[in-house]
Amino acid sequence: MTNAEIARQLFAALAGQDEAAVRGLCSPDLKVRQNNGPPMSLGSLLKFNRMVGKAVTGFRYEDAVCSATEAGFVEEHAVRGTLPDGKPLELAVCVVADVKDGKVTIVREYVDTAASAGLSAALR
Questions:
Q1: Across the strands, what pairs with 80?
Q2: Which regions of the chain does DSSP assign to beta strands (E)?
Q3: pTM to 2 decimals?
Q4: What are phi and psi of 116, to 5 degrees?
Q5: Going by DSSP bridges, is the β-strand pair 72-82/26-34 parallel, antiparallel, or unpaired?
Q6: Which residues touch 120 (CB under 8 Å, ≥6 apart)?
Q7: Which residue from 74, 16, 4 is spatially nearest to 49, judged by alpha carbons?
Q8: Within 13 Å of residue 53, how many CA atoms lie on the same side as its CB?
Q9: For residue 56, how many other CB atoms are within 10 A of its CB?
Q10: Taking Cα atoms as reference points, which of 102, 57, 60 lies closest to residue 77?
Q11: pLDDT-based confidence at 121, cuts 50/70/90?
């Protein structure tokens, strides 16, 4: 499987709340950082993803542009759905990831924090 295919499957599994598939695509030692914040483990990522899935109706990734790199992949995509207050969620996100031996090992996600304020409020 190519690094771009790994990215496609990872985001499909996250959007579909398929934790077994996410675990299968990621290293058990996965480290995820959002906007250079503190690292999250695989377990923390799955917990965060469950929270988002419960808070956002129709959560999905769209308009993905993915480029495989020697070390992994870079993907830009839109995160969309509907927040609990009925407002639309529309985030532009960039993910830079490392892949080793077919498993995602490191994810660095960058998102506009002002645009994500509604999501942050819904997760509190």
A1: 60, 90
A2: 26-34, 57-68, 72-82, 88-100, 103-111
A3: 0.93
A4: -95, 5
A5: unpaired
A6: 113
A7: 16
A8: 15
A9: 20
A10: 60
A11: confident
DSSP one-letter string for 76-97? EEEEEEE-TTSPEEEEEEEEEE
Structure tokens given for 99 = 């892949």
CA–CA separation, 29 and 50 (whole Å): 19
74 token code pair:
């870079």
Beta strand 57-68 with 26-34 is: unpaired
What gap in Å lies between CA 35 and CA 3, rounded to an integer? 22
Q: What phi and psi, each to the nearest 5 degrees, are found at residue 6?
A: -60, -45
Question: Is the sign of the CA dihedral 55, 57, 59, 63 positive or negative?
Answer: negative
Q: pLDDT by residue (tens digit) across 55-88?
A: 999 999 999 999 999 999 999 999 999 999 999 9
Confidence of residue 54 (pLDDT cuts 50, 70, 90): very high
